Amino acid sequence: MDSISLDIHSAVQAAIILAIAGLVLSVWIGIRSIRKAHKLRFFRMRRDRMVRGWRLLAFAGVLGVLAILLYQYAEPVVYSFFPPTPTATSTPTITLTPTITLTPTITLTPTITLTPSVTDTPTVTPTPQIPFDVEAQFESTVTPNPEAVFSDLVFSQGIDESTYLPINANTIFQNPVGHLYALFSYDGMVNGSQWTALWYRAGELVHFESEPWDGGSGGFGYTDWNPEPYEWLPGEYEVQIYNGLIFKVSGRFTVEGEAPSPPPSVTPTRTGTPTRTPTPTRTPTPTRTRTPAPTGEPTPSRTPTFGPSPTSLPPTATRTRIVFPSPTATYTRGPTATPLTPTPTKTHWPTAIPTTLTPTITRHPTPTPTP
Fold first, then answer.
1. Is residue 194 part of a domain?
2. What predicted TM-score, i.e. pTM, was given to this entire model?
3. Which tens digits make up the pLDDT trace of 102-120?
4. Residue 204's closest CA among 254, 255, 131?
5. Boundary residue ending a domain (256, 272, 291)
6. Choosing a second label site near 218 at 20 to 30 A (CA), which of 5, 53, 102, 119?
7. Peptide bond before 122: cis, by omega within 30 degrees of 0?
């Protein structure tokens, strides 16, 4: 029976040691799996790795409970079926052996610990928020799921639409950048809820998209931007993802190199308003001026003086008519006036201008004696 007792005790002790070893190994592998899960970019892979780690931790807990039960109840239960026979045991005599006491020869001098004079106080990082002008464009009325999760963003210049794997993934891009994608995996989304992606350059919003969600509860997605080549200015960019008004995840990338020059802008040339061609004006015909008769002198009469005989009358003053040449109408031509044929103007008989001669009027002519 002594051999059976020793075998039972050894078996119980071995089982306890194995349980403890399995507990330690499960805890170590589980914690390592959870830590690696936080470094994965895609949500599903990260979730699977974390579930595996927690399962190992739960198994470690079971092994711990099993080790406790083996330690406290295993041997009594076995001995209830196989009672041990008491045997005489010899008590060993302990002989004390004198030990050598070491005397320290060198005493270490305490060193001075430097106390920092300035303590850096960590600054509070504000939670990103959607600008009001973007929020005003929301269309959805469906309440988003606050428990929805997004993986870290992966930036690439292309995407394989069959596998949703990035092409030329990087965090530093050289100009010209072209079409850029920000890929992510997601879980817990609700169709119809509003989601928003904001693209910032040096804190300035340069692009955004906001619309009702239609990608299902879980899977892979992306947000993209394909501006004109000259809009990819060098600097640091940030992409933020929101579910409703709840900030979920953000990522950063850098653009290096000068952007291409924008194409020259064409300025429209203003066409002058056509000017009206002035209508040719007619030069007025000069007005005939009547010369007044001399003051204080008799105006010659058109009626001749009657006498006994015309031949016996002394010579009378005759009126001399001065004829002025008829003025010809002239026309002033404009810059594009069509030449016109002048219409002849009717010329009236000019008014006679009295001469300054003083006529001799014989009131009673003397008759000439007849021989």
1. yes
2. 0.42
3. 665 666 666 666 665 655 5
4. 131
5. 256
6. 53
7. no
Give the integer Cα–Cα distance in Å for 176 and 256.
9
Type of residue numbered 140:
S
Query: Does residue 13 form part of some domain?
Result: yes
Task: Judge if 144 and 246 occupy the same domain.
Answer: yes
Q: How confident is the model over 210-224, as pLDDT tens digits?
A: 999 998 999 989 999
Domain total in the chain:
2
- Closest of 354, 214, 339, 344 to residue 280, by C-alpha: 339
The reply to whether 104 falls in a domain is no
Task: Using only the alpha carbons of the chain, give its radius of gyration.
Answer: 62
Work out the number of other CB atoms within 10 angstroms of the CB of residue 369: 5
Comparing CA positions, the residue from 357, 352, 363 lying closest to residue 313 is 363
Side-chain half-sphere CA neighbours of 207 within 13 A:
16
Q: Is 334 helix (H, G, I), strand (E, B) or coil?
A: coil
Answer yes or no: are the C-beta atoms of 243 and 145 closer than 8 Å: yes
Cα end-to-end distance, the chain, whole Å: 223
Residue 52's domain comprises 2-81
Contact 13, 22 (CB under 8 A): no
Three-state SS sequence of 137-158: CCCCCECCCCCCEECCCEEECE
| Strand 281-282 with 218-225, pairing | unpaired
Same domain, 159 and 65: no
Residues 6+ apart with CB under 8 A from 347: 326
